[in-house]
Amino acid sequence: MQTLQSGLAAVHERIAHAARRAGRPPEEVALVAVTKTHPPELIAAALEAGITHIGENKVQEAAQKFDSLHNRYPHAHWHLIGHLQRNKAKQAAGIFTKLHTLDSLRLAEALNRHLEGQNDTLPRQRLPVLLQINVSGEQSKEGFLLPGDPDNQAALPSLLSDIEPILALPRLEVRGLMTIAPLAPDPEAARPVFRRLRRLRDTLARHFPHATWDELSMGMSDDFEVAIEEGATWVRLGRALFGARHTNANR
Ligand SMILES: *Cc1c(COP(=O)(O)O)cnc(C)c1O
Fold first, then answer.
1. For residue 1, what pLDDT is reported?
2. Residue-wise pLDDT tens for the chain (251 aa)?
3. What is the C-alpha separation between 2 and 42, in angstroms, rounded?
4. Are 194 and 218 in contact, with CB atoms under 8 Å apart?
5. Ligand 1 closest atom vs CA 101
6. What residues are in contact with ligand 1 under a 6 Å CB criterion?
7. Residue 173's beta-bridge partner residues?
8. What is the pLDDT of residue 247?
9. Residue 193 C-alpha to ligand 1 middle, in angstroms?
10. How far is the CA of 122 from the centre of ligand 1 (A)?
11. Nearest alpha carbon, ligand 1 atom 15
């Protein structure tokens, strides 16, 4: 099995190559190391190896790992990359430094409420969030539905009216969009999905110029190079760094 160090170096190399192919500076692309199903010792090893962003998909699992690591690694950033249930919003607000999967106004309001309730000695004022978009329209996927072509203004009103009130919430800070491409053997199959997310981002930036739309979280182990070519600023990698997950709780 590859060591974590050599795996990490290889991944950084691939990220840099993909960025240069697209004429982008490699520093524009940040890595979230997805540690779901892996034990705290592996996260500690990853943080020692220089990883700074940890991705988890379940609040309960992340909370245990956070509790055992937070004192030792207070500067690690914890990203929630899985669906967040409203009844876990409070717990999530105490752990994560970024939510990639904001997928409804009701969830946004619940989070905002819990963050308002937090006492103000906490340094974090606003929680950075990404809006999850279900670009492919697969029923199994969470996220705001993207109706048709993002350049087609006529298809957008319902999405725009979902998003506008989220932008007004004082304790959340929308930074961009996130999507998960359909599973496919060929990474090229994900390209149109990533491209549509980027074009939707451009459209939203025109409609809501007072908000920040810099960030695109897209690309996993099988398709991250294509995602970078299409503008990803966050790639979320598990298997490419840590090998196969030995569990069926993969997704
Ligand atoms: C598991 C997961 C990843 C990482 O998947 P790999 O294929 O192991 O890179 C990325 N994003 C989300 C939302 C995930 O659930």
1. 47
2. 468 999 999 999 999 999 999 999 999 999 999 999 999 999 999 999 999 999 999 999 999 999 999 999 999 999 999 999 999 999 999 999 999 999 999 999 999 999 988 766 555 579 999 999 999 888 889 999 887 766 666 668 889 999 999 999 999 999 999 999 999 999 999 999 999 999 999 999 999 999 999 999 999 999 999 999 999 999 999 999 999 997 655 44
3. 14
4. yes
5. 13
6. 34, 36, 57, 81-82, 180, 220-221, 236-240, 251
7. 128
8. 66
9. 16
10. 30
11. 251
CA of 225 to the centre of ligand 1 (A): 14
Q: Burial letters for 5-21: b for 16+ Cβ neighbours within 10 Å, e otherwise? A: eebbeebeebbbebbee
CA of 82, closest atom in ligand 1: 13
Q: What is the pLDDT at residue 121?
A: 59
User: Which residues contact residue 43 at a Cβ distance below 8 angstroms, ignoring those fewer than 6 apart?
Assistant: 35, 54, 65, 69
CA 190 → CA 127, 211, 229, distances in Å?
29, 27, 11
- Distance from the CA of 220 to the center of ligand 1, in angstroms? 6
Measure 189 CA to ligand 1 centroid, in angstroms: 17
Non-local (6+) Cβ contacts of 151 within 8 A are 199, 203
Closest residue by Cα to atom 11, ligand 1, is: 236
Q: Which residue's C-alpha comes closest to atom 13 of ligand 1?
A: 81
Task: At 5, list the tokens.
Answer: 């160090």
Residue type, 155: A
> What is the CA(236)–ligand 1 centre distance, in A?
6
Give the per-residue pLDDT at 251: 46
Mutate to test the pocket of ligand 1, among 53, 220, 235 (most ligand atoms within 8 A of CB): 220
